[in-house]
């Protein structure tokens, strides 16, 4: 009895990988083993960087709040401590957006907590 291979499924699997590595340099785009390795590595990077993205945005928000707070004579930690003491529950994302796009609202908050 001849060996049965499901070439339809394997061709579909390869087609999916080739589609996802399209545009990459050299043999990564058209040689199966190299493409498969590049594809899997890309998935690892994507998984890792979804976590890293959250850290990076939090760092950015903190830097923006710190810069805006220093304009009003406070450090970041003093500002956040006074926010908590005054029961103002705004998260860092909103505060950073205010500091960038609506400085008068941020100034009002800074004056209230002083």
Radius of gyration: 25 Å
CATH architecture: Orthogonal Bundle
Q: Given this structure, which CATH class is correct? A: Mainly Alpha
Count all strands and give the number: 0
Helicity, as a percent range: over 70%
Q: Do you know the CATH topology?
A: c-terminal domain of poly(a) binding protein
Rounded mean pLDDT is: 95
Q: What fraction of residues sit in β-strands?
A: under 5%
Distance between the termini: 86 Å
Number of domains: 1
The best one-word shape is rod-shaped
- Provide the low-confidence segments as ranges: none
Structural class: mainly alpha
Q: Major sheet: size, sense and barrel closure?
A: none
Please identify which CATH superfamily we are dealing with.
Answer: Ribosomal protein L20, C-terminal domain
Query: What's the order of the H and E elements?
Result: HHHHH
């Amino acid at each position: 009895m001849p060996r049965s291979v499901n070439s339809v499924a394997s061709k579909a699997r390869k087609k999916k990988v080739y589609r996802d590595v399209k545009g990459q340099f050299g043999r990564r785009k058209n040689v199966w083993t190299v493409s498969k390795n590049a594809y899997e590595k890309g998935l690892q990077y994507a998984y890792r960087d979804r976590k890293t993205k959250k850290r990076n945005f939090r760092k950015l928000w903190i830097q923006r709040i710190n810069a805006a707070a220093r304009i009003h004579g406070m450090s970041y930690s003093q500002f956040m401590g006074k926010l908590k003491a005054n029961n103002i529950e705004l998260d860092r994302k909103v505060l950073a957006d205010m500091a960038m796009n609506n400085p008068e609202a941020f100034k009002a908050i800074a004056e209230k907590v002083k």
